[in-house]
Amino acid sequence: VQGTGGSSAVSKCSAAARGYIQDRFLRLLAGRRRRRAPLIHRGYYIRARAVDHCVQDFLLRTQSLPRTQIVSLGAGFDSLYFRLKDVGLLRHTVVYEVDFPNVACQKATLIKGMKELSALVGDTGGEGLGAITFSGEDYKLLGVDLSELSELERILEEAGLNNEIPTLFIAEVVLTYMENTRSDALIQWAAEHFPRACFLLYEQVHPEDPFGHIMQQHFSQLSTALHSLPQYPDCEAQQRRFLGKGWTECSVMDMNEFFTCCIPEDEQQRVQGLEPFDEYEEWHLKCSHYFVLAASKGMESSWTPLLPSVTAPRHAGPVGMAGSVPAVCAGLSGIPGLRRYGHHSVLIKPNVVLTTGGFGEEDGQHCRVRNFHVLSKRAGCWEAVCVTQNIPDKRWGQRLYHTVSRLSDTLALVLGGRTSPSSVGLGMLWLKFPKTCNASGPEDVAVELVSLQPAAEAALLRWRHSTTEVTFKGEQYLFVYGGRSALEPVLGDWHFLHTPELSYTEIAVEGPVPERRHSHSACSWDGGVLIAGGLGAAEQPLGSVFLLREFEHGFQWQAIETHPPLVPRYSHTAHVHEGKLLLVGGVWFHASSVPGVTVIDLMTGLCLDYVINVDHLEWPLMLHNHSSIFLPNEKELLVIGGGGNCFSFGTHLNPEPVSLSLTSILSSH
After folding, report:
1. To the nearest whole number, what is the mean pLDDT of the chain?
2. pLDDT for residue 255
């Protein structure tokens, strides 16, 4: 547990070095320096921002009072005191920091040894005494185990804590490491002993979904189990906890809501533009698994730092489920090349599936996957074979987030994709297969470059887009829509490519233009295209569904109204079957459940959500960045790959393909 403080200080320090947070003191306190990934930077940015937002709100509301106090529980190597002191916010406030004795001693030694820090605290005129490892006029650093409440109370009193003046308690990922009886006692003690008090809590939530399982597993492996989660699994339970322990007001937000509602738009844009970034799913999942809580009692004016400055486009109440869909393993275990995400799968002929690209496991290590994989279904069973492409690596480019469109039994087109998020995107390729390509004869797939005019090629450099077959005046076209590029974080343009020679064609399009998006789904339907969901311009999931259909001299966009409204989502897959749009998985901001299968009746607009029953799976099923294939005759959905980097908790790749039987839900409609 003591190690978590040091590691969090290093991550905050790395975020500060990249400009996410302004804090010149972190590098002095963190000790070692390490460059963290952009996803970690964002995670620690939102944490620091939430805590600062609430602390500054407390200081602002109490600035006219003669004296206030802040008690930081489990403060570790945090720089809060130094930052507040540096900008003149502690004129009438004393800060008490509490942590394990050896952590407090290390920090005291650091402060004494550094002019920049000791000068801010002022000369103490002597060493700390006993548990008080450092004592300045407005700063006291105390070494005591938080779970020993009577000892904590005694030492705080000895250090000069006055329970008659307004006091803010801060616990930033601290209480969850304690047994619940002890953390509950601490919450209740603070409410009972301090007539005018506020409490700020930041920690984890939602242990039961796939991301929550990976998160819990990570902390258990570090021997720092998260004790509060079983008893307080969601924001509402945490709110009830505080209200039941003597606090009279309590508001709580998960970090998706905090980012949307409490951070000004220009600041959101600043942070989103600091580094090349393409891990939206993991960012939003991380944010839905952490919350900030502000409780208070006896304050002259209400302490409500979590009042939204804008209203989040949030979905009220839990998502109602119309039923469940059983998930079973497709009998393809032990095939490492299918553990991947950001790949693409396409049905190249009946019951034969080609999977290409993505990031995953190859030759025993995690990397961008080079090999192609073919799956075929025979006598009701899936079989797999690895097909190594016979081309130099650089042409394939080891791409993620590309599309593959089947044009005939022997030909498919690869469009877009990227290597790293800062890359310009990758050009188009032909994939040519032998007529007999199936799992019994792993003949090589030939890959050839597509030569287009440079301007046309440049317009198609994108990823997280969609490429869908449409028909216009009896001719076949590929409709390329949306996505993102190295320069544009979200695109809203489209292009028509006449097949098979891929000539650019101008076709008039009328009607309400859909908002820009990437990571949406697109399906061919009735000669046109159905676009659903996606991530929009402000990194907000979209809940709109559009149909692009042939119309007089061109095409027309038409919005499809769904009822109840479709829960906004992205990174899902989609299929159409007999007038019904099926959306599979994805990421939404609704932390109470994860997206399963949604069925939209395209005639009536009726939208029903079904939960995926994973009782027969022995591992968490992460349904984002996956691919899926629908076999209409069997009403079977084959889900291949999926997963991602779960913040700092490790990479999760779904171990094997999963089969979902949709018979019951498609026949019941």
Report:
1. 90
2. 96
Task: Specify burial of residue 526 (Cβ count, 10 A radius: 0-12, 13-18, 19+).
Answer: middle
Is omega for the bond preceding 500 within 30 degrees of 0, making it cis? yes
Report the Cα 74 to chain-centroid distance in Å. 27
pLDDT band per the 50, 70, 90 thresholds, residue 202: very high
Question: What residues contact residue 269 under an 8 Å CB cut-off, 6+ apart?
Answer: none
Contact 555, 509 (CB under 8 A): yes
Instruction: In the chain, list all ranges with CATH 3.40.50.150.
Output: 37-297
- The SS3 call for residue 104 is helix
Q: What's the CA gap between 100 and 103, in Å, rounded? A: 5
Q: What's the CA gap between 104 and 76, in Å, rounded?
A: 7
Cα 422 from chain centroid (whole Å): 19
Residues 627, 632: Cα–Cα separation, whole Å: 16
Structure tokens at 424: 């310009």
Show Cβ contacts of residue 392 under 8 Å, excluding neighbours closer than 6 positions: none
Which residues, including other chains, have CB under 8 Å from residue 247's CB and lie 6 or more apart?
Answer: 187, 191, 199, 295, 296, 297
Residue 302 CB-half CA count within 13 A: 8
What distance in Å separates the CA atoms of residue 399 and residue 368, rounded to the nearest whole number? 7
| Separation of alpha carbons 637 and 610, rounded Å | 14
Residue linked to tokens 């989103």: 272
Which of 625, 636, 583 has its CA nearest to residue 377?
636
Q: Which CATH superfamily is domain 322-666 in?
A: Kelch-type beta propeller (2.120.10.80)
- Which is the CATH superfamily of the domain at 37-297? Vaccinia Virus protein VP39 (3.40.50.150)
State how far the Cα of 58 lies from the Cα of 70, in Å rounded to an integer.
10
Q: What number is the average pLDDT over the span 163-188?
A: 97
Can you point out the beta strands (E) in 552-596? 554-559, 573-577, 580-584
Beta bridge partner(s), residue 528: 525
| Strands, E assignment, 173-255 | 197-204, 249-254
Q: For residue 210, is the peptide bond before it cis, meaning its omega torsion is within 30 degrees of 0?
A: no
Cα-based distances in Å from 319 to 229, 259, 314, 570: 21, 22, 11, 16
Task: State the Cα–Cα distance between residues 149 and 53, nearest whole angstrom.
Answer: 28
Amino acid making up residue 41: H
pLDDT digit string, tens, across residues 561-573: 999 999 999 999 9
Cα dihedral 560, 632, 611, 532 sign: negative
User: How far is the C-alpha of 190 from the C-alpha of 201, rounded, in Å?
Assistant: 13
**What whole-number percentage of the chain has pLDDT above 90?**
71
Strands lying side by side in the sheet with 290-297: 132-135, 139-143, 93-99, 68-73, 167-172, 197-204, 290-297, 249-254
Alpha carbon distance 611, 593 (integer Å): 9
Q: Which helix (H) or strand (E) holds 18?
A: none
* Rounded Cα gap, residues 241 and 235, in angstroms: 10
Residue 132 phi/psi, 5-degree rounding, is -85, 95
